[in-house]
Amino acid sequence: MHWVCVDCAEMAGLLTELPPRMPRPAELFEELLIGGEDGVEEKVCPQCGTTYRDLRDQGRLGCPDCYTHFHQEIDALIGTAGSAYSGSLPARLESLKTFYVDREALREQLRSALDHERYEEAAHLRDAIHIIDSQGER
Question: Which 8-state DSSP code applies to residue 36?
Fold first, then answer.
């Protein structure tokens, strides 16, 4: 028995098929963190043929239809799935945001604190809601 490298075996005509390629470390971690794609058909844009892997690796889309076809994946990649605008607001809208948006967020946190019996936190949240309510009455 003789041991030869893959290149020598290929040149000598000893290989009928190439051995499997060793995955890159990044691919191994991706499979561990995201889950392998075994048996999962990769999403492909029907218009231009761009795949989700192309989008993820290159950060570019192939055509305007890709935006429609990959909209969920794009949201996940840029981290905006379900998030709200967080930029600055004109001064005249800031008070409305505080009253409607921040107040509702506090009310949701209050419900959660009460559900989990965190009464001290609930008291602070209740006080914060009363402050917002008193400012809105002016």
Answer: -
